[in-house]
Amino acid sequence: MNAPASRPPIAPPLWLLAELTYRCPLHCAFCYNPVDYAQQRAELSTGEWIDVMRQARQLGTAQLGFSGGEPLLRDDLEELIGEGRRLGFYTNLITSGIGLTEPRIARMKERGLDHIQLSFQDSTREMNDFLSSTKTFDLKAKVARLIKRHDYPMVLNVVLHRFNLDHVDRIIDMALEMGVEYLELANTQYYGWGLVNRAQLMPTRKQLLWAEAVVNEYRARIGNRIRILFVVPDYFEERPKACMNGWGSVFFAVAPDGTALPCHAARSLPGIAFPNVTEHRLGEIWYGSGAFNRYRGDAWMKAPCSGCPERHKDFGGCRCQAYALTGDAENADPVCARSPRHGDVQAVVLQAQRMQAQGVQPIVFRSDANSRRLAAVEK
Ligand code: SF4
Ligand code: SF4
Prior knowledge:
The chain has 379 residues and is of the alpha/beta class. The protein has helices at 46-59, 77-86, 102-111, 125-132, 137-149, 168-178, 192-196, 198-201, 205-222, 282-288, 290-293, 311-314, 319-326, 342-358, 368-378; strands at residues 15-19, 63-67, 90-95, 115-120, 154-160, 182-187, 227-231, 251-254, 260-261. Helix 1 (46-59) runs parallel beside helix 2. The termini are far apart. Bound molecules: iron/sulfur cluster (2 copies). One of its GO terms (biological process) is pyrroloquinoline quinone biosynthetic process. Keywords: 4Fe-4S, Iron, Iron-sulfur, Metal-binding, Oxidoreductase, PQQ biosynthesis, S-adenosyl-L-methionine. It comes from Pseudoduganella flava.
């Protein structure tokens, strides 16, 4: 018999992710921004962002991340950081590093920025520059030194896939040389541009097992010198991730145009009217909106999740992934071996490997032209 469905009390959001802009000088093949970003040019003003931050603090939000696109493209970033800090947030800048100059980092330090997460695409100049379709490796290396010089704890993020998984040892060596404190090795999540390029980016199980063994070997050898997080790609798992720790549970993202989202990929779900912070108060959105309540608790779940003893552990997995892979966001995330659609995930992996062997499909880099072309195809 199924356990009765439940809806726990709604706790305040802990995390606000301010996606300040979708503009970015890079063209990453795995970019998590929406594929149609080129049609979404509207951005909140400085005053509107400050108002969002104030409301979030009143709700009890403690962490504030500035991301994008590339948040450094906003000239008011330092002002927003200063205001965030003044309001009492722990502030975090998530950046490709492009545009982080000595005067800017000095101003950010002065305004109280707590933390910087820098992304690299690879340990080699060739692969870094290929994957971002820019010549940015040397610039990023310079920015890494700048971050250390300004005494920031260094968090390095490298998205992994079949083109760089075999370099994991060199990526860790690079992190050690840079004096990184925390290394996030996150295998590609197949949303946004990652989904467009899924067949090209999909690694083999052999690559993953090797990389994981290397990571464990380094962990044993270097101890606490660097904390290494290795996130395995969902498609190779038997259980899904507890996406966002549950829909509308701790995380609140605001897109550049003010659209409020329970996760940055949520706009890919059809039939949900996501509210905008220019029209509604944050508290109203968080506690009362149909969009944020849609997948809270377990009342929305269908079998097998509805009767599963693990449903409060993984919340049925990721709604965006369930939709992308099964066409129904209320299905169990098919990464789960209990899902009747689990075989589809394995088929995607095999299909990707067949396509790679045939070498037929080029990478589609994130660019305005590709964004417009893909958006037109989707219509
Ligand atoms: S993933 Fe790459 S292209 Fe996308 S926002 Fe980040 S740096 Fe820019
Ligand atoms: S059936 Fe649903 S709740 Fe159970 S483990 Fe799988 S995804 Fe999670």
